[in-house]
Amino acid sequence: MKLKNILIVVKDIEKSKQFYHDLFGLDMILDNGGNMILTEGLVLQDEKIWREFVKKDVIPGSNSCELYFEEEHIEEFADKLDRLYPDTKYVNRLITHSWAKVVRFYDLDGNLIEVGTPFRS
């Protein structure tokens, strides 16, 4: 068995597709009308369809999971994030931990994202 995809719920699939392309270079592989597969295995699911499947409300900003990306040029990424999406809600702006530099923020729908420099032992 292997993990194939990670699915996140979004209100506006086109805006989210643009967000993930602008910041992470992800491109659409398949559009199933309300369910869109992007490169790297990220799937965007329309919130209305998701609610029909699970019969429950979506809770933005629930902080129960995060998408993690690594970026060698983290300062440039942080600048791009501020420039392209100035209304971003942050958990923390760029900080340095003993293991990496990281920035944590929410996407357009309250899904938590962390971007960090690659771990070096």
UniProtKB/TrEMBL annotation:
Gene3D superfamilies: 2,3-Dihydroxybiphenyl 1,2-Dioxygenase, domain 1 (3.10.180.10). It comes from the Bacteria. Residues 2-118 form the VOC domain. It holds the Pfam family Glyoxalase_2. InterPro entries: Glyas_Bleomycin-R_OHBP_Dase, Glyoxalase-like_dom, VOC_core. This is VOC family protein. It comes from Jingyaoa shaoxingensis.
